[in-house]
Structures are given as structure tokens and as C-alpha cells.
Automatic annotation (TrEMBL):
Residue ranges crossing the lipid bilayer per the database entry: none
Name recorded for this polypeptide: Sensor-like histidine kinase SenX3
Segment of the intact protein contained: 115 to 384 of 397
Coiled-coil annotated spans: none
Keyword terms: ATP-binding, Cell membrane, Kinase, Membrane, Nucleotide-binding, Phosphoprotein, Transferase, Two-component regulatory system
Keyword ATP-binding found: yes
Lineage, opening ranks: Bacteria, Bacillati, Actinomycetota, Actinomycetes, Propionibacteriales
């Protein structure tokens, strides 16, 4: 069992009465530890692209009389600075979500729009690899949550499906109702994930294959963001995967079921 951090204070409040104050700081301590760990990881991860940009800037200034080398180094500087930007944006996103506090004011979010928007954002990367993104029947479903967060989560899943699929394959996004929830699935036919890795892929900065990761330009934070979005919504995220065959990630969020309109209610069978 996890040790608990509990303190007790005893305050006499009369000749026969004492007041016992018990304070459980387990949760605060845990959040504090996660935060410390996160900051250490972040500093480490930021050093890599910043270091690369520094080295490339030196190389550019030394290659002034070789236009081809200048062009090559500058291009790599752009790639590294894009990576740095993506990393910083995801770090900000993740630090907002880390407390896993339930949403303060959830709103009705249209699943069709989320899926269309996620497909649109990833369409350039998909087109570059000749990957087609198919949108399955989504049935006008709505979830109860934070639009920005749901969009970030689904976009991360679709962008991973594209990144970890080989040229010419397809990615399918579909949604269906299941009890009180909506299940949004992103299905790919890509490289898949070994069973031993499945539990670890949701950890911050964890990548199955850092070498391949470098070429896909990922940050190692995407799935961690997806997991936290599921938590703040009281939902879940499930994964099925088979190496060489593909993966299916399913984000489960609370469904918003509209109350029947007065007109519909009139026609309800008795
Ligand atoms: P990254 O930015 O590296 O994609 P994520 O947190 O999104 O970071 O994913 C963590 C790791 O999980 C990835 O580096 C990759 O190894 C693996 N992974 C995620 N999605 C998929 C997928 N659809 N197919 C295969 N592997 C995946």
C-alpha cells in the first residue's frame, strides 16, 4: 500500500476536552512529487533541441562561404526550432491538466466537429505519406466536456496513427455510443506496440523507439495528454495493439444526452 502522510495535532480546549486535528497531506505530497519529476524531465528534454540549435548556429557561421552547407544547417535549425515549439506547447497543455481536477464548467461538445477538425489538422502529414484518413459513422454524438481538451486528445491520437503507419496505409476515426459514454476510436494499420510496452506509452516522455521517434518529430507527451484529458472528464483511454498489424486507441468520454424537446415529449408512447 502507498504510505500516507498524516499529521495529528492535539489542542486542549478545556479541562476535559481536547481537540484533535488530523490532516492528510498524501494527495498534496503526491502532486508535489509528480511536479518535481516533471520539471526535471522538462529541463532535460528542452536541452536537446536548444543544444542542437546552438551547434547548428555555430556551423552556419563557420560555413559562410559554402551556400549549400548554410542551406542544409538552416533547414535543420528550422526543424529543431519547430520541435522546440511543439514541445513547449505540449508542456503547457500538460501542466494545465496535471491535477486531473474534474472540469469546472463542462459544455456540450459535438463529436463530428472534433473528428473533422482532428482529421483536418493531420491531413497535411497524412497526404505527405499517402495515408488516407477515413471518418466512420459518428451519428451526431455529443460529449460533455471541454472542447479544447477533447480536440487536443483526438488530434494527438490521429497524429500518432499517421506517424506510426507506413506509406499508403489508412487511418480510421469512428465514434459510437456505449451506455452513458461515447467511444471515439482511432484505428491504424501501422507498426503496432509490443505488449510489454503498452503500459508505459502513457508515461510522460516515454517512447518505444527513440530513434524512430526522432524522425517522426514527436515529443513523447501526446499520450500523456490524452490520459489526463480522459481523467479530467471522468473517462478512460483503452488501447489494443498488435506489432506489425496496427493499433486502436479508444477515448471514452461521458455522453451528453439531450433532453427531449416539448414536441418529442408529446409523442412519447404511454
Ligand atoms: P510521441 O510524441 O513520441 O508520439 P506519445 O506520447 O504520443 O509520444 O506516444 C508515446 C509512444 O507510444 C510513441 O513514441 C510510440 O512509440 C508509441 N505510439 C503511440 N501511438 C502509436 C501508434 N498509433 N502506433 C504505434 N506506436 C504508437
Amino acid at each position: 500500500a502507498t504510505p500516507r502522510h498524516v499529521t495529528a495535532r492535539i489542542a486542549p480546549i478545556g479541562s476535559r476536552l481536547v481537540l484533535v486535528l488530523v490532516e492528510d497531506r498524501t494527495r498534496e505530497r503526491r502532486i508535489e512529487a509528480v511536479r518535481r519529476d516533471f520539471v526535471a524531465n522538462v529541463s532535460h528534454e528542452l536541452k536537446t533541441p536548444v543544444g542542437a540549435i546552438r551547434v547548428l548556429a555555430d556551423a552556419v557561421s563557420e560555413a559562410a562561404d559554402d551556400p549549400e552547407a548554410v542551406r542544409r544547417f538552416s533547414h535543420r535549425m528550422l526543424t529543431e526550432s519547430d520541435r522546440l515549439t511543439a514541445l513547449v506547447l505540449q508542456i503547457i497543455e500538460l501542466s494545465r491538466l496535471q491535477g486531473d481536477e474534474p472540469l469546472e464548467s463542462p459544455e456540450v461538445v459535438d463529436v463530428d466537429q472534433i473528428i473533422a477538425s482532428a482529421a483536418d489538422t493531420t491531413s497535411v502529414d497524412a497526404a505527405r505519406k499517402g495515408i488516407s484518413i477515413r471518418v466512420g459513422g459518428t451519428n451526431g454524438l455529443k460529449v460533455f466536456g471541454a472542447e479544447e481538451q477533447v480536440l487536443a486528445a483526438v488530434t494527438n491520437l490521429v497524429s500518432n496513427a499517421v506517424a506510426y503507419s507506413d506509406v499508403g496505409l489508412s487511418v480510421t476515426i469512428a465514434a459510437r455510443a456505449s451506455d452513458d459514454n461515447v467511444e471515439i476510436s482511432v484505428i491504424d494499420q501501422g507498426i503496432g506496440i509490443a505488449p510489454a510496452e503498452i503500459d508505459r506509452i502513457f508515461e510522460r516522455f516515454y517512447r518505444v523507439d527513440p530513434a524512430r521517434h526522432r524522425s517522426t518529430g514527436g515529443t513523447g507527451l501526446g499520450l500523456s495528454i490524452v490520459k489526463h484529458v480522459a481523467a479530467t472528464h471522468g473517462g478512460d483511454v483503452k488501447v489494443w495493439s498488435s506489432p506489425g498489424r496496427g493499433s486502436t486507441f479508444t477515448l471514452i468520454l461521458p455522453q451528453h444526452i439531450a433532453a427531449p424537446t416539448a414536441d418529442e415529449a408529446d409523442h412519447e408512447p404511454l
